[in-house]
Amino acid sequence: MSAVNLVGLVGAVVLTAFLVVALLFPERFWPESVVDVPGRPGLLTQVCARSRVSGARPFCTGSGAGAVLKVFPGRVVSVNEPCPAVPFMTEYQGVNVECAQMGQNYAAGRTVPIRGGARWTIPPDAVTAGGSGPDPHISIMYADLQAARVARERGRPVEEVRALIRRHTDVPALGFPGEPGVDVLALDPAFNLDLDR
Predict the structure, then answer these.
(1) Alpha helix locations (H) across the chain?
(2) Would the pLDDT of 173 be above 70?
(3) Mean pLDDT over residues 80-86, rounded?
(4) Which of 99, 153, 170, 181 could form a disulfide with 137 if both were Cys (CB 3.0 to 4.6 A apart)?
């Protein structure tokens, strides 16, 4: 056997071994899995938990878990919601959805992330830098998205917070094209003046 053939054979054996181990322990090789494992939530649940928005975020349950089913013939399990949780949906394609039983292996089921009925999207500036430095503005949508949380934290009605947001919304400079923005550097002190009296 030539050296080239030997290297090819060794490479094939190593690749096969890697694939076998990866299939047996997917959570070790693909941490971005949409399925949670005990003690370690998948990437989807991590994102959902960090950005819970009243259950309206696509692919997230109202409880902040990834909206993922494992589908078997005649059986459907909401794998990221362990019992006694009530599954985020009652049935899938005519089959009742069950909560996940701890210790059960659902790997053989077909993984089905559920999109959900969310109609809005997260504003781009919610996931990028903004509101500081050379441009202290955030979008009106992003400010409005945070209004309920700010009101709750400050113990004030949401409408008071939204009124302050409107008062600190600037139009594009000199009439140039662009979107109006909320000046957070001016808005933040205004909360202290108007809301904390």
Answers:
(1) 3-24, 26-29, 43-50, 140-154, 158-167, 184-195
(2) no
(3) 88
(4) 181
Least confident of 34-38, 154-158, 174-178, 190-194: 174-178
Side chain identity, residue 142:
Y
Whether the CB-CB separation of 65 and 110 falls below 8 Å is answered with no
Mean confidence (pLDDT) of the chain: 77
Element (H, E) at 169: strand 169-170
**Amino acid symbol at 134:** P
Give me the torsion for CA of 19, 24, 28, 29, rounded to 10°. Answer: 20
According to the model, what pLDDT value does residue 38 have?
76
The pTM of this model reads 0.46
- Judge if the upstream peptide bond of residue 189 is cis by omega within 30 degrees of 0: no
Eight-state DSSP code of residue 100: E
Burial class (CB in 10 A: 0-12, 13-18, 19+), 13: exposed
Residue pair 109/77 in contact (Cβ under 8 Å)? The answer is yes
- From CA 96, how far away is CA 31, in angstroms rounded? 29
